[in-house]
Amino acid sequence: MPVLLVRKRAGVVGETQRTCHLVPMPDDDSTPLAMTAYCGELIHRGEAELLAQPSGMPCVGCLFRVPMPRDGELAHDW
Length: 78
Prior knowledge:
The protein is mainly beta and 78 residues long. It contains one helix and five strands, in the order βββββα. The chain has one helix spanning 60-65, and strands at residues 3-8, 21-24, 34-36, 42-44, 48-51. A hairpin with a 5-residue loop joins strand 3 and strand 4 (42-44). The radius of gyration is 13 Å and the shape is globular. 13% of the residues are buried.
């Protein structure tokens, strides 16, 4: 299941709250008005940045709640 790495922008929240959230990839190509991270954090359009790779502290709540890959979704070469 594809996920987005999202972090709230500086100035929207304090630096200690700028954790890297995991957000389910939207089903279509539209840009939603808001996304909900796996931890339950509501992230509105324009208040966050999309990350190409993890950056900063991870959101522990997201890490605990992100679905595990199903059989066949993991690369077997590691």
